[in-house]
Design a protein that fits this description.
about 5% strand, two-stranded antiparallel sheet
């Protein structure tokens, strides 16, 4: 399975850990670890983000970043950043600068350093531990997996892929909906 940006995966321990330990704990062979790293680099490169192996040292629980993106995505206001821009800023901060995206002040600083403004009402809601999106089971039940996608009349189009692939898949999905 391809690596996906901020995939909502199980972490042991839930607070994450050192990347080297995380990779070694999966029981993967060295060539499998190398293949996973190559896939990650390819996905990041397709989005114009580089991975700094010297700084990207910690595997974070992605739920906080997921919640931020879901709140911005679902916000009815027009003063929130566009989802793909927000995702790129978070991704670049994590992989290029080693920012801990599971720590609210670090996540907020990364977004602001990336030149984006998220309204204070969203940051306040994100800090609220009783917010319904804090519940991991609920987050999974509403497909809050952090994977950018489009829905074209019931067809899911993966939007984390390079733009040409997203465009081709969108056109194919549209063609399916126009057939009698």
């Amino acid at each position: 399975q391809s690596w996906r940006f901020l995939r909502l995966y199980d972490l042991e321990p839930p607070e994450g850990g050192l990347r080297a330990d995380y990779l070694a704990s999966g029981g993967k062979q060295p060539e499998q670890i190398a293949a996973s790293r190559a896939d990650l680099v390819a996905r990041a490169t397709a989005e114009g983000v580089r991975i700094d192996e010297e700084r990207y040292l910690h595997v974070d629980n992605p739920l906080l970043a997921h919640r931020l993106m879901a709140m911005c995505r679902d916000e009815p206001g027009t003063d929130v950043p566009e989802l793909s821009a927000l995702a790129r800023v978070v991704w670049a901060a994590k992989f290029t600068r080693g920012v801990r995206t599971d720590i609210l002040p670090e996540l907020r600083l990364a977004v602001e350093d990336g030149g984006l403004e998220v309204p204070e009402r969203i940051w306040t809601r994100l800090a609220d531990r009783d917010d319904h999106l804090t519940d991991r089971a609920y987050a999974q039940s509403v497909s809050l997996d952090g994977v950018p996608r489009l829905r074209v009349r019931g067809t899911i189009v993966a939007a984390w892929l390079p733009f040409a692939e997203v465009l081709a898949s969108t056109r194919a999905a549209l063609a399916l909906t126009t057939r009698p």
